[in-house]
Amino acid sequence: MKVLVLNCGSSSIKYKLFDMTSGEVMAQGGIEKIGLPGAFLKLTDKDGKKVVLEKEMPGHKEGIEFILSILTDKTYGCIKEYNEIDAVGHRVVHGGEKFASSVKIDRDVINKVIECSDLAPLHNPANLKGIDAMEALIPGIPQVAVFDTAFHQTMPAKAYMYGLPYEMYTKYGVRRYGFHGTSHRYVSRRACEILGVPYEEQKIITAHVGNGGSIAAVDHGKCVDTSMGLTPVEGLLMGTRCGDVDAGALSFIMEKEGLDGHGLSDLINKKSGVAGLVGGSSDMRDLEAAVEAGDERATMVLDVYNYRIKKYIGAYAAAMGGCDILVWTGGVGENQWATRRVVCENMEYMGMKIDVEKNEGMRGEEMVISTPDSKVTIIVVPTDEEYMIAADTMDILGK
């Protein structure tokens, strides 16, 4: 079964084509600047080289049409005809309380995704454009929606309710939803496969840490808490998102700076986090380089970044009454060994001991990095959300 996975953003489309019989990634790439001058598609060719192809693409339909033309291209393609694609799996950001699992897309599903668009106004409409474009280009092709929020729908009310008037929940659905759910689900299961332990018997903390980041507590196979909230702003310090902040500070800033809702949203989403604190790049590699060069503010920012992660890990161990496995994933979690070391240091009180030599320099591969006598197994598992989407698509259509 060949499954095309699409992740449509407001001006971008990422794609991967899987042969699920063999698990092979047949093609992958992404389009940037849809609807803008200088739109292009970047792909990885058969020899592993990066290729950039420029083309004007006024909308998502034209972008997906271009992707399909490349998949069937004599030079860059891997299939001869569109109908070799058996199904399409879509990343859909917000499913609200309506979806606790992936689903085959029909008109009722589309209507419910539209209803959730208030909760993700930048993402759900773009996801829907991808669904509509595929139906227009390959009428009748089976499509599946895989939701970022679905994995977290097992959280109890004590974890997802905010201390706001209850009507804010009943009228507008204001509560914690969490994101990165497909990644947290994949790496928590994959870690147990690697370790040969039963998933349903473990207390797992998953740290998806990168430019965007979240922590999740997975107790006996179910998510019981996660750091992101109604939106992806809450929780950890991120590249440009502020993470946890006193809500009173936001109203104070709005008054002082004369900001409206859009201005505040821009501040906390695009001008805060690492970039806002350091006054420059949001790239963690740049931040670490500045720290090594002796920059005091950069050192403070990195301390804040690492401290937030450590604090959430400790909180979730307390919430679950212990931790058996800590999983690192995401761009920073997989590659920044110094952050893993600093966060895991001085955690012996909860049975966590990192193997400094194994950890140092280890990047982007599956590996246990705890010591043999550590009661908590610390493991790095590169995430593969696209494979998870493809696997869900195959499973749902197979049923």
From TrEMBL:
Q: Which family does it belong to?
A: Belongs to the acetokinase family.
Q: Which residues form the active site?
A: 148
Which residues are involved in binding substrate?
91
UniProt entry keywords in alphabetical sequence: ATP-binding, Cytoplasm, Kinase, Magnesium, Metal-binding, Nucleotide-binding, Transferase
Can you tell me which residues bind ATP? 14, 208-212, 283-285, 331-335
GO MF: acetate kinase activity; ATP binding; magnesium ion binding
Q: Which Pfam families match?
A: Acetate_kinase (PF00871)
Give the encoding gene's name: ackA
Q: What is its EC number?
A: 2.7.2.1
Which prosthetic group or cofactor does it need? Mg(2+); Mn(2+)
* Complexes and interactors: Homodimer.
Catalytic activity from the UniProt record: acetate + ATP = acetyl phosphate + ADP
* Record site: Transition state stabilizer: 180, 241
PROSITE patterns the record matches:
ACETATE_KINASE_1, ACETATE_KINASE_2
Q: What class of enzyme is it?
A: transferase
Q: Which GO biological process annotations does it have? A: acetate metabolic process; acetyl-CoA biosynthetic process
**Tell me, what does this protein do in biology?**
Catalyzes the formation of acetyl phosphate from acetate and ATP. Can also catalyze the reverse reaction.
**How the cofactor binds, per note?**
Mg(2+). Can also accept Mn(2+).
Q: Which residues bind Mg(2+)?
A: 7, 385
Q: What is this protein called?
A: Acetate kinase
Q: Which HAMAP family match?
A: Acetate_kinase (MF_00020)
- Kindly list the places in or outside the cell where this protein is found, as annotated in its UniProt entry: Cytoplasm
Among InterPro entries, the record links this protein to: Ac/propionate_kinase, Aliphatic_acid_kin_short-chain, Aliphatic_acid_kinase_CS, ATPase_NBD
The protein's annotated pathway: Metabolic intermediate biosynthesis; acetyl-CoA biosynthesis; acetyl-CoA from acetate: step 1/2
* One Gene Ontology cellular component annotation held by this UniProt entry: cytoplasm
